[in-house]
Amino acid sequence: MKLFDGVSATIWRMGLSQALMMTVMNVNLTNTALVGSLLAPSPWLITLPLSIQFIAVMIATIPASLLMAKFGRRPVFLAGVIVVSIGAFGQALSILTGSFIPLVFSSFLVGLGQGVAQFYRYAAADTAEGADKAKAVSFVLLGGLVSAIIGPEIAFRTVDLVPNSLYAGCFIVTGLVQMLAIPVIWGLKLPPIQRLKTQGRHISKFLVMPSFLSGLIAAALGYGLMTFLMTATPLQIVDVSKLSHEANARVIQWHVFAMFAPSLFSGILIAKFGVGKILWVGLACYVLASITALSGNEFYTYLIALILLGIGWNFLYVGGSSIIANCTNPEERGRVQGIADFCIFSMVATASMLSGMIHNQLGWVFMMTIAFVPIFLIAVSLILGRPKLISEPT
Question: Quick one: pLDDT at residue 146?
Answer without folding.
Answer: 81
